[in-house]
Amino acid sequence: MSTTPVGQKTAPVALLLFNRPEVTQKVVERVLAAKPQSVYVIADGPRPDHPEDVRLCQEVRDIVTGAQWDCPVHTEFGNTNMGLKARVSSGLDWVFSHEEFAIVLEDDCLADPSFFPFATELLEKYVDDERVGIVSGNNFLRGKQLNADSYFFAPDVRIWGWATWKRVWQDFSQNGLNRQWSESEGEALLARLTSPARKAQLQRMMAKAHTLNSWALPFVFHAQRRRYLSAVPRENLVTNIGFGADSTHTQFESFTAEVPVGTLSFPLRHPEDVVESSEAGRIESAEEKKLWLTFPLQHPIDFLGRVFRYLRR
Questions:
Q1: CA 279 to each of CA 66, 100, 229, 269, 313: distance values in angstroms, whole numbers, following the listed order
Q2: Domain-by-domain residue ranges, the chain?
Q3: Which residue has the higher pLDDT, 89 or 288?
Q4: CB of 198 closer than 8 Å to CB of 123
Q5: Gene3D superfamilies given for it (predicted)?
Q6: What is the pLDDT of residues 178-213, one digit of tens each?
Q7: 3-state SS of the chain?
Q8: Which residues 6+ apart lie within 8 Å of 266 measured at CB?
Q9: How large is the average pLDDT for residues 42-52?
Q10: pLDDT band for position 148 (50/70/90)?
Q11: What's the CATH class of domain 13-312?
């Protein structure tokens, strides 16, 4: 078996960038190596109350424009700061006005090389299957394997390195982005999840939804309402390299989200049915609970450092 398929051209890639040149450089290099069909770069402008943003935003843009791309590159560089929700949503509206599907990477999502052909193959395979909402790069099983399949289906969306279709994004943009959710609707969404870990995560997100300028929370809720499934690789294929003080909404450096990156072999082995894996949910919850109990004891200095940096923000 091979780690890369032969002759496959990577799907279009949308890059969501802002003011972090160091992580952006790493992500751009990985995308360059994947040789996508085209690249769309969406970059927000500097914040008026952060003078250093002018320099940092320009450094990020220089990385993009200075790269040796061998495909068409389209850019939307904001002159002013639109904020996360407006910048990402309008940018992806633009992408999906031109493309039927795309891989989406934020500046802190570093993907294993096998993620790109994995996402591309599944984007093509499930392009007309309305049961599938996204292809994710995130697996939280921490090395545990369910079976010999290359991926499974989960009832939640995982968007640290992901891919989706025009049909999904345009529906969300029109019917989910600015929708207000009632308490009863939120409870109904939570009831759908079989994984206690994913349910607890969604509860935390719902509790702070009104305080965040976020496109991601409405997208998660919309995906639950539509009962979308996510295609999840058997190995974790994307790591978040941007936790810390300069991240926008992930300022606590969550050790439960830091999963070692693996790789996939090709050709892919597809599941027989498009159905949720309840076993995966049980394993994820057990692994997350175990990590919460053991990490502070095994890595006390690291844990206290994370808490200290979070409290100082």
A1: 46, 32, 15, 19, 38
A2: 13-312
A3: 89
A4: no
A5: Spore Coat Polysaccharide Biosynthesis Protein SpsA, Chain A
A6: 988 778 888 887 887 777 777 777 787 777 766 778
A7: CECCCCCCCECCEEEEECCCHHHHHHHHHHHHHHCECCEEEEECCCCCCCCHHHHHHHHHHHHHHHCCCCCCEEEEECCCCCCHHHHHHHHHHHHHCCCCEEEEEECCEEECCCHHHHHHHHHHHCCCCCCEEEEECCCCCCCCCCCCCCEEEECCCCCCCEEEEHHHHHHHHHHCCCCCCCHHHHHHHHHHCCCHHHHHHHHHHHHCHHHCCCCHHHHHHHHHHCCCEEEEECCCCEEECCCCCCCCCCCCCCCCCCCCCCCCCECCCCCCCCCECHHHHHHHHHHHHHHHHHHHHHCHHHHHHHHHHHHHC
A8: 1, 2, 3, 4, 5, 114, 117
A9: 97
A10: very high
A11: alpha beta
Q: What does the mean pLDDT of the chain come to?
A: 87
Band (295; pLDDT cuts 50, 70, 90): low
